[in-house]
Amino acid sequence: MPPPNGFLLEDHVGFLLRKAHQRHAAIFQVSAAKAGLTPTQFAALCKTVELGHVTQNLLGRLVAMDPATVQGVVRRLTARGLIARSDDPMDRRTAVLTATEAGLALIGEAVASAQRSHSTALAPLSNEEQRVFLALLHRLV
Amino acid sequence: MPPPNGFLLEDHVGFLLRKAHQRHAAIFQVSAAKAGLTPTQFAALCKTVELGHVTQNLLGRLVAMDPATVQGVVRRLTARGLIARSDDPMDRRTAVLTATEAGLALIGEAVASAQRSHSTALAPLSNEEQRVFLALLHRLV
DNA sequence: CCAGTTTCATTCGAATACGAATGAGCAGCC
DNA sequence: GGCTGCTCATTCGTATTCGAATGAAACTGG
User: Fold this and answer.
1) Closest nucleotide C1' to the C-alpha of A67
2) What is the pLDDT of residue A94?
3) Which of B15, B37, B42 is most worth mutating to test chain A (most A CB atoms within 10 A of its CB)?
4) Which fold has domain B11-140?
């Protein structure tokens, strides 16, 4: 059976992005084995530390997660004692999130892991190619 | 709280790849609404049509899916009657997959959907930038 | 003040995605 | 033949991811 039309799955941007994302996730998992964080958990913890305190919905928007997704991520980070929830007396709908001491203690190693995974994932490209790739990727998201 | 080190989550390649993948998936879902296929299901069906018949494990390797993942994808495609399973008398471990008439009837529209999602996802870039981006992305996967 | 709208968080269901374990079958080697 | 090791497919558990629905709370216009 010939490939339909002239379509090549291997050149489809969605297929390539899916594989690139998979590959980075695998690299990150190795890099962050000591911290024991997934890329998603790292993003949520990193942004929480950066802001000091943040509502769950705002955190979700900043790290590109659905409210339903961020709920699960926050639940697991809270269960591990890396972030804490508190109430906002001004808005009783919201959950205010803050990094705990354990979360702050972990963020240094976690950031180092992320930097290692960044370098490893981009290693097949030269420095200039990495710069171009990241600039183009920025314009697609 | 200042960002740890000089780390910016927004410039992390994993974070950008995750968002780019999300964005394409959303675009594909709209493009392929008529076909009713997810990007993953499309990849599996497309490769099955291209090869005529393929074992489930080989299909998984060709479309970058874990055996556990491809099992679920094939189960759903089979349930919809788009592909069929048969036995290989030479190797009773394997499941041989073939596209059904319904699968063949759907592939044209599905490929057109994929081509539309490809163009839409890359629309922020010029033709030359698209070429460069895809070439670099190819080298990362 | 109040009715309509919006926002926040949660829950459910469905679909990837992977590690680990399992059972079945095949292949090589002595 | 028998043993060992490998492969194929499945299953379980955990983690993302989103659509849709829900309930509570806040906001907005009159």
Assistant:
1) C9
2) 96
3) B15
4) Arc Repressor Mutant, subunit A (1.10.10)
Tell the residue number behind the tokens 């089979």, with chain if given.
B78
**Rounded CA gap, A127 and A133, in Å?**
10
What single DSSP character describes residue B11?
G
Nearest to B39 by CA among B57, B23, B17: B23
Q: Which of B60, B55, B3 is nearest to A114 (CA)?
A: B3
Q: Which of A18, A22, A126 is the mutation pick for testing B, counting most B CBs within 10 A?
A: A18
- pLDDT band with cut points at 50, 70 and 90 for residue B6: confident
Would you write out chain A's pLDDT as a tens digit for each of its 141 residues? Answer: 655 668 999 999 999 999 999 999 999 999 999 999 999 999 999 999 999 999 999 999 999 999 999 999 999 999 999 999 999 999 999 999 999 999 999 999 999 999 999 999 999 999 999 999 999 999 998
Sketch the domain layout of chain A as residue ranges. Answer: 13-140
Tokens of A122: 């981009």
